[in-house]
Amino acid sequence: MRDSGGAPGGWPQPARRSRGFIHGLLTLLPALTLLVPAGTAQTVGTMPGTLRYGSGLLDIPVASVLPHMAFTATWSGFRVSVAETVVPDDPGATVPPDRRFERWFSDGSLALGLFGRLEVGTSLQHFAGADRGGKVLGTFGRLALIRPRGHGLGLAAGFRHLTSPSFGDESGEVQPNRLGYPDWRVTREAAADGKFGGNFSPYLVATALLPGVAAGPATHDVTLHLGWGGGLFSAGPELDFYQDANSGGIFGGAAIHYGLGGGRLLNLMADFNGFDANAGVQLDLGGVRLGAFALGLQHDGTSTFRSRKFGLLGSVVFCGGRRTLCRGERKPAPDTVTLPAPPPDTVVIVRETAAGVTEAPEGTPETLCLATGKGVEVRVTTAGDTLVGPSWASIGELRPGLVFAGSYAGDRAWFIADEPVRFEDRLYAGTGGDMRLNCDEIVRVGEYAGVPVFADRSAEPPLENVHVPRRPGIWRTYRHR
């Protein structure tokens, strides 16, 4: 159930803030990423949930979508308390001069992910009788055009559609508003300089997934989002009670996703939906989410729309492909946290010139990604030698004493026979080619026959590809049949 607020014609009209304020706010949102200590980048299994339109930040969409057959059910609600003079969802009713308009409004939504590319759902926003606006139902969808792999960019297009509230013929064609509840004053003809259209809201949004910085035991990823939309993202700039400034449909936000271990994830987020600056926190307890938020932080309280509102959110995320609750992060295996120390003879070799002076390093620096999930620096000479250790000795000179940390598949019978890998009750076949991987872009997800199994940090369950270390620095990718 929802409400809107408006200032009657007798109210003083506050001066509109300039658009520069809005664009400045959009610029400042990414600064949220600098307000917390950094950790180590990690896989974010699912985005937090919006108040009523599936995954995303509080009131803006993002470029990622729910994993295939992942299903969410979300409830959210907020409280309005403002010196209103009319009852927005009851035409003709007024608030006594010595009282405030106070009400709790809530929403429900259901969302489903399909093929790792599409997210669709429905919102349930109002169930009062016709005298208070009737029912307001919604549908929404988002198609991931470019999915953010690793630490990269994503792009998505989507829409939100809401039915119109109905107060009777005397109210005209009432339109849904950005807060989701009926307001009999927000009609299609309400805007003096143009029609108010809130039924259909198309949008395009881009997302950047950035790694954290190793600086402590906590882990986090950072996401930045920027987009443009029509409908409720831009409608209503002519109505003073509805807005004090708008961005013309531009919206944006930033979030920090903290991995707490055990499938738990803490999301800190802020967004701007074209009219309101919002902020909130969501705690994902392995598929069960609890959150608190504040809407309209920059508003002065002169109307229901232009006031600060505080609320709560609860959500359940179910991964249909795995028949269990979706976890907010991929839990790494213990040896990706505590690594075995390399043998002493890989680091204590000394090579000196005839004059007794250590030779300068030669060759091109490279990093080998080991089966431990950590990289080791080597140098490759023009002659093809690989140099390791503080003295940059040739691997050929050090064998057989040189041993790299980790377990590798190269000499395993199942690997030599090109047998499929079984992981999480799914079979994966080898793609046939060796490759080098960046340790910063993969994360350990388990093991097979004593050899660790890794996946891309951005991959969502169920996994389409897994990576197995063949030998130090060389990997083999296996694809789900």
Helix content: under 10%
Q: Which consecutive residue ranges, at least 5 long each, have pLDDT under 50?
A: 1-45, 213-218, 329-360
Looking across the biggest beta sheet, what order are the strands in? 1-2-3-4-5-6-7-8-9-10-11-12
Overall form: elongated
Number of helices: 3
Whole-number radius of gyration? 28 Å
Main sheet specs: 12 strands, antiparallel, barrel
Strand proportion, as a percent range, falls in 35-45%
Terminal CA distance reads 46 Å
Overall residue-averaged pLDDT value: 76
Number of strands: 23
Secondary-structure element series: HEEEEEEEEEEEEEEEEEHHEEEEEE
Secondary-structure-derived class: mainly beta
Q: Would you spell out the secondary-structure blueprint of this structure?
A:
Blueprint: H1 19-28, E1 70-82, E2 101-114, E3 118-127, E4 135-146, E5 153-162, E6 200-211, E7 219-229, E8 250-261, E9 264-272, E10 277-285, E11 288-295, E12 309-319, E13 324-325, E14 364-369, E15 375-380, E16 386-388, E17 393-394, H2 395-398, H3 413-416, E18 421-423, E19 426-435, E20 442-448, E21 451-456, E22 465-471, E23 474-480
Antiparallel strand pairs: 1-2, 1-12, 2-3, 3-4, 4-5, 5-6, 6-7, 7-8, 8-9, 9-10, 10-11, 11-12, 12-13, 14-15, 15-16, 16-17, 18-19, 19-23, 20-21, 22-23
Explain this structure:
The chain starts with 18 loop residues before the first helix and ends with a strand. The model is unreliable at 1-45, 213-218 and 329-360 (pLDDT under 50). The protein is mainly beta and 481 residues long. It has helices at 19-28, 395-398, 413-416; strands spanning 70-82, 101-114, 118-127, 135-146, 153-162, 200-211, 219-229, 250-261, 264-272, 277-285, 288-295, 309-319, 324-325, 364-369, 375-380, 386-388, 393-394, 421-423, 426-435, 442-448, 451-456, 465-471, 474-480. The longest helix is centred in the first third of the chain and has 10 residues, at 19-28. The strands form four sheets. Strands 1-2-3-4-5-6-7-8-9-10-11-12 form a twelve-stranded antiparallel beta barrel.
